Amino acid sequence: MGTSLRFMAAASAIGSIIEWYDLFVYGSLVVVLSRVFFPTPNPSLSVLLSLAAFVAGAAVRPLGGALFGRIGDMAGRKRAFLLTVVVMGFGAVMTGLLPTYAAIGVAAPVLLLTLRLVQGLALGGEFGGATVYLAEHAPQSSRGFWTSLVQASGTLGLLFASGAVLATTAVVGEAAFVQWGWRIPFLFSLVLVVVALAMRLKLTETPLFTELAEKKMTSDAPVRESFGNRVNLKSLAVAMAVVAGSSVIWHTAQFYSSVFMQATLKISLSDSTLVTFAALALGSPFFVLFGRLSDRFGRKKLILFGNLLGALLILPIYVAMSFSAHPPALPVLAALSFSLVLVSAMVYGPLGAYLVESFPTRLRYTSFAIAYGVGSGDIGDGTLLIAPALAFVTGNIFAGLAWSVSVPLLTLAVGALFMRETRGTALG
């Protein structure tokens, strides 16, 4: 079972790697893309428009969760997350082929926005499908460890994206990268998608879903039932709140920090990407560590303590980053970024196991995907627009962090009152 489970983990995780690879390629290049697709006399406004396109794609993730979750709960986990990886890959590759604003005018940002929306739908079903698939094969005693591999793969996706941007910039030069080299990291997604499809086609359906289907006990309307069942609706609401704070911390640590360094602190693309690469490389193993610790000490304690740490540390760390920016003290910036990644690992490592264990098998994919889509896609990804918008409106570079602190505090309050400990829950 061990070798087979390792292969399942790799096949599940690679979709999440692609998901976050594409997201971070866009996120790390948001300043570059703002010039290519959203040129305006005000560079800050261009960056906000570029971020708005990104967030619009994220905003439809709950809809994608409902769509692909319905497929996963009615037709099978495997079928659903085969579809998600194909759609994700299509969107990423086509982004790399898009003509620019200089070439076709306003049609360029419209096409970019359309691709972000299509990808957002697929992303809404990918993470939930991968985590549910792996969890329904994993032993109960180590479910936190196995599902944390999917959580860690998101950071690996960011790591690969940073590496792709750094390598491309080094080869073609920063001037050429801004002109056309930005396309290469997007086009590289095709390689990842081919590998993911080859692996996932070898997978079989999960035993829990197979048993449910053989007994004809699958849900005929998983979306309606997810919201119509009072017990499940409560679990869904609490899960959304738990994901919200955790995702805001994750995005503030691993996405917004890159935008902040480039757009606000005026650190070069290569230096900021190098800082992010180092922080992610050091931080990735901790997602698995905290997932394993959740198998021993419980999901709730780690997630809530991580939200508390995030609320306390985010602002001081960003202030310290600003003091280390001129001239850029790269080792110091990397250490500060790593500390942010470490906190995000504490909340995200156990998150997949908690979500899987919160819902019954017949509604698990749909409920998981919707909860994650709202908490991460709408609220977490919203950080990338809300935080810089607050800074832009107020003129205070740290004003946006009020969002990054308040949402984890809200999660802490809701979680302390209503979150149940799910470690040891039998999936049924």
Please report the first level of CATH classification, the CATH class: Mainly Alpha
Number of helices: 21
What is the N-to-C order of secondary-structure elements (H for helix, E for strand)?
HHHHHHHHHHHHHHHHHHHHH
What would CATH call the architecture?
Answer: Up-down Bundle
Distance between the termini: 21 Å
Q: Residue-averaged pLDDT, rounded?
A: 90
Strand content: under 5%
Low-pLDDT stretches are none
**Broad shape:** globular
CATH fold annotation:
Growth Hormone, Chain: A
For the report, how would you describe the main beta sheet?
A: none
Number of strands: 0
Helix percent band: over 70%
Number of domains: 1
C-alpha-based Rg, rounded:
20 Å
CATH superfamily: MFS general substrate transporter like domains
- The helix-and-strand class reads mainly alpha
Would you summarize the structure shown here?
The protein has 428 residues and is an all-alpha fold. The chain has helices at residues 2-28, 30-37, 43-59, 61-74, 77-97, 101-104, 107-135, 143-172, 174-181, 183-187, 189-200, 207-214, 222-228, 230-264, 269-297, 299-323, 330-348, 351-357, 364-380, 383-394, 401-418.
How would you sum up this structure, described in words?
The protein has 428 residues and is an all-alpha fold. The protein has a single domain, classed as MFS general substrate transporter like domains (Growth Hormone, Chain: A, Up-down Bundle). It has 21 helices and no strands. Helix 5 runs antiparallel to helix 7, helix 15 packs antiparallel against helix 16 and helix 16 runs antiparallel to helix 17. The longest helix has 35 residues.
